[in-house]
Fold this protein.
Amino acid sequence: MSDVNRGNRPLSPHLTIYRPQWTSMSSILVRITGNALIVAALMIVWWFVAAASGPEKFATANGFVTSWFGDLIMTLSTLGLWYHLLGGLRHLVWDSGRMLDVDKSELAAQMMMVLSVLLTIFTVIVV
Amino acid sequence: MAFLTDRKRASGMGSAKTGTEHHWQMMVTSVALLVLTPLFIFTFGAILGSPYEEVIAYYQRPFPAVVAILTMLVGFFHYRLGVQTLIEDYVHGFARKATIIGMICLSYAAAAFAIFAIVRIAL
């Protein structure tokens, strides 16, 4: 309704004005990690397609995925994937009407950050 | 524009009424991925870095292959829904529509390529 004069009413505080909180930061990180996972996902698709295409194609794709740069993307993506998984779990708990209080929400945010790091370390050791 | 009545200005601006379905599909895929993701991390992680012959033999086994197929199928569908929400929040006008269509096509294409490749390796 851009044609309506809405007056000089104050705007609500935005991301750049608000002090960072556990709840807002943990939420935006779920979005960032989820969408950033497309990079690793497309690399894995390339790896599968290359494996189905023969040894030469596989050598190229596998060489990239297991290079230091590929390892870096895969390790960061593992952290992102675990974090996003825990974030999704938190959403499912929220949707069931539980842990909606601020203190419990903040505790969940801190747990997500600690657990995702621990699960990533575990994954790197096992894999 | 001053000739528009308030009623006319407001009509047709409501929701698309697909939000419930979107949320439900997000919940279902989230629950599925809660199981699939750890299985995929440890099956895919176990074979990544192995030579070509071992990778082919590994994905000819039913369990790793089906885990990979389901993860790609459900994962990319989940991504297709999630990225649409992201675009709707930050992109506006024609660019929004174009980006949503583009990312939906990319999601389905990626899933199709992955599944075709895994089936071809397995069979």
In short: The first helix of chain B runs from residue 6 to 10.
